[in-house]
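Supplementary Methods, section 5.1.

A reviewer requested that the exact input to the structure prediction be made available. We therefore reproduce it here, unchanged from the version used in the analyses.
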Amino acid sequence: MNPVFESAHRLAAMIQRSEIGCEELLNLYLDRIDHYNPTLNAVIVDLRDSARAEARRMDSEKARGHSRGSLHGVPMTIKESYNVAGTATTWGNPAWKVNVTQEDAEAVKRLKGIGINLHGKTNVPLALADFQSYNAIYGTTHNPYDRTRTPGGSSGGSAVSLAAGFTGIEAGSDIGGSIRNPAHFCGVFGHKPTWNLCWSRGHSAPGDHRTDTDIAVIGPLARSAKDLEIALRAMAVPDAIAARGFSLNLPTFEGRQLSDLRVAVWADDEFCPVSQDVRKRVEAVATALRDKGAHVDSSARPALSSAQSHDIYQRLLQATLASGTPDAEFGTLLKQAAKYAPDDRSEAAAVFRNQTTRFRDWAGANEDREQFRWRWHEFFQNYDIVLAPVTPTAAFPQDHRKFSERMLRVDNSDIPYFRQVFWAGLSGVSYLPSTVIPTGLNGEGLPIGVQIIGPEYGDLITIGIAEKLEQDGFRFTPPPAFAN
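The structure derived from this sequence is encoded token-by-token as follows.
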């Protein structure tokens, strides 16, 4: 295999064995970016000069027997929404092109602390709010398996950078599937952590934000499950205040076998139907686990309905997304919400009401969420994981029309474009961790991923199971057009 497609931990081992140098490896990635990135538009901020200087320092340190950490010298790109000192953090918003930050995000500091060498930033949609990755500053990012298709969003550039061999490892963020759907659409691994597991300071809009956004998380993407674990262990840290009294002690899958597992399978749902291709891949992973001796149950569910879960998720999500809206724009939302009759139960009416909700109503939704968290907790006393789709389909064709004009084609039926967020919200609203594994390509040559959902703080368990499944064939395969 071309070294650029190796996992990050194997690349680090190659460097330590002097099979390749830090600068030599970096140049392999930069050469690929020069050759292929104009076609894909994944890497949109170039940090090669500083990265080359850093690679030379790392080679010198290696020659003296010094290592910065487990990923010493591994080149990395990162989602544009992270602060990287000396670069603009725009979130795809032209008004923020001047938002040049002076300090790395905490997660960037932590990843540098284990030896990564940052050489670029990757593309996002406007406000990180789409299942596609395009904006007025940097343009459109394309899926390397089919350039007419979306790579996913909002960490679309991150997933493409990995799949096309532009980087050793990546990091994104997720409030509505923004790590998971790009991993699924681009055939790589991704992990949405338990909420608040990773300190997200420095992953924010302009300003010195100290609060952790409800539901939103930061987390890794990679070409192997082991890399997810390495990056998550670096990124998972209490904030500086909590660290005075708290430390992490996450359970792992170490010492256990797939035959030990109790697996619930949620392969489809009437509330958000999935394509036959997607359902079959969830069932294929379930079959692989059953063949290993795991107990597999296709009817087990926590004590909540799909509609309830989605409703509470939307109430909390929309309020969160609108919370940073400028006063004038929020005033427009209030006027729009007032146009709907009290008995109007349309999705449009619900969106505007949720975006302008009163604290009393938000608190009620939050209490419902807490009830769900406990029901999930009780469910995970009897089951270790849930297998589920990531989204209803494989990567869909690029569609840059207004949101209100978009629909998603699922086999022979259309569903509202944003209904597909159901599968992300299923775990997201209740703060549950979810690891996405690739399962290979469908008949159109497009990747399909599957979610492994676990209990809160079961992050290393879902990643550990992903690693076992990777060894059994659920692994990354380079896109044919970019495999050389």
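Residues 359-379 form the longest helix (21 residues). These observations are discussed further in the main text.
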